[in-house]
Specification:
The protein is α+β, with helices and mostly antiparallel strands and 306 residues long. It folds into 2 domains: 2-161 and 291-297, 3-Layer(aba) Sandwich (Aminopeptidase), CATH 3.40.630.30; 182-262, Aminopeptidase (3-Layer(aba) Sandwich). 24% of the residues lie in helices and 35% in strands.
Length: 306
């Protein structure tokens, strides 16, 4: 086994490895070599890509055994709340069962990050993740549990989380709220085949609630992503809650998006937003994934025992 720094001539095998590793991660669709090159081009050019959550001092390491990629990690230097420089792991994965190889690659990346005098390392932060990795708001998926386990073993702990719920082949008939409102629907074309949608509720010309949903095509160009919508925000003003308005807004938006071609719906919420989780899970959605951000304080180094 050898660990080498990523170069552009590794683009094909590393892209294949990424696609293989994320095949069972919900809403991770195969990416082309060209798409992967955009996400990692800061490693080869030294220039951050703002559209891809670019960071400074990027590098990546690849572990190869008998000509086969077995682990890959992409790291760099970002900022926490635009104040403190921190280490960033944009993506990390290793072949299930290749624990020692994953450990060696992680240690190699940490050694690199430590040369930049940082105190923390964040893994799979929303601010720095690949655009095509999962839908928006996702962190490290439970489907990559071997990666979660290795990070935990090395002193990383969960610092944030997002639960994802899906509603495949959804059908919905909106139930009006007990509160009389007027709705507006705004469409905006994005990266996806179908447009993104925002529905707002008004009472006496005052906005009292809104729901935002975007195309799965915002995150992936793969055909299978185009029929999915991801609801990224549902909010009702405090004094208007408890009257069925949130349900009505969500159902109305799902209905309107179904009319233009969407067939499947995804939604997510913070791991500790029990109220939203309860609402979504009783609205037709079913849990498909738990995702987590991990952070390591370098002043607290764990002791390993294999």
């Amino acid at each position: 086994m050898e660990i080498i720094e990523y170069t552009s001539d590794m683009q094909v095998p590393v892209t294949r490895f990424y696609n293989h590793l994320t095949a069972d991660v919900p809403h991770c669709y195969p990416v082309s070599e060209e798409e992967f090159a955009v996400a990692i081009h800061g490693v080869t050019t030294g220039k951050a890509d703002e559209k891809e959550g670019g960071i400074d001092s990027e590098t990546a390491f690849v572990a190869i055994t008998e000509g086969t990629v077995q682990a890959f990690i992409h790291v760099g230097i970002g900022q926490e709340e635009k104040v403190e420089d921190v280490g960033v792991i944009r993506f990390f994965g290793y072949e299930r069962g290749a624990r020692r190889i994953g450990q060696a690659v992680l240690e190699k990346a940490e050694a690199y990050l430590k040369t930049h005098n940082i105190s923390k390392i964040f893994a799979f932060s929303q601010d720095y993740r690949y655009r095509f990795y999962h839908f928006g708001h996702a962190y490290l998926s439970d489907a990559l549990d071997q990666v979660q386990a290795l990070l935990g073993y090395n002193g990383y702990h969960r610092s944030a989380g997002e639960v994802f719920l899906d509603w495949e082949n959804y059908t919905v008939t909106p139930i009006p709220a007990s509160l009389p409102v007027t709705l507006s629907v705004d469409w905006k074309q994005g990266r996806g085949q179908f447009p993104n949608c925002t529905v707002k509720a008004f009472q006496d010309d005052k906005e009292v609630g809104e729901c935002w949903s975007v195309s799965g095509g915002e995150f992936s160009s793969h055909p299978d992503a185009q029929n999915w919508l991801h609801t990224t925000w549902l909010g009702i003003e405090d004094e208007f809650q408890g009257q069925g308005l949130g349900r009505y807004l969500l159902q109305y938006e799902l209905q309107e998006m179904h009319k233009v071609g969407y067939r499947h719906a995804a939604i997510s919420t913070a791991w500790d937003n029990h109220r939203a989780f309860l609402f979504y899970s009783n609205c037709g959605y079913r849990t498909v994934d738990w995702t987590y951000e991990f952070v390591k304080n370098l002043s607290q180094t764990p002791t390993h025992k294999w």
